[in-house]
Amino acid sequence: MPCYEFACRECGGFERIHLMAEVPAESACPTCGQPARRRIGGGTLLHGDSPAMRLLDTTARTAAEPPVVTAPPSGSRPRVTRNPLHRKLPRP
Ligand SMILES: [Zn+2]
Question: What is the whole-number distance in angstroms between the Cα of residue 24 and the centre of ligand 1?
Fold first, then answer.
């Protein structure tokens, strides 16, 4: 969802995420609660500190640096194969 900018007369600008079809002309300011008009613009899909950008950064970081796991998740049992061909595989 795109991120839209709103301008409060008292507090300045802030951003909100809305569906393109449901973006309002005014939104309540998170600081003072007064209605703030939407700034003219197309909306930003990827903003520097938006939740979407943080998700993309986290996804890229975990792809390059996966978290180190030292133990299997609790409650999980080791999978045992019943395929006889797997007995020929080298053992650790
Ligand atoms: Zn305000």
Answer: 17
Domain count, the chain: 1
Contacts of 13 (CB under 8 A, 6+ apart): 5, 6, 7, 39
In order along its 92 residues, the chain shows pLDDT tens digits of 778 889 999 999 998 888 888 889 999 999 999 999 998 876 666 666 778 778 888 888 888 777 788 887 777 777 788 899 998 999 87
- Ligand 1 centroid to residue 5 C-alpha, Å: 13
Residue 73 belongs to some domain of the structure: no
Instruction: Give the side-chain half-sphere CA count within 13 A for 12.
Output: 0
Asked whether residue 45 is assigned to any structural domain, the reply reads yes
**69 domain residue, yes or no:** no
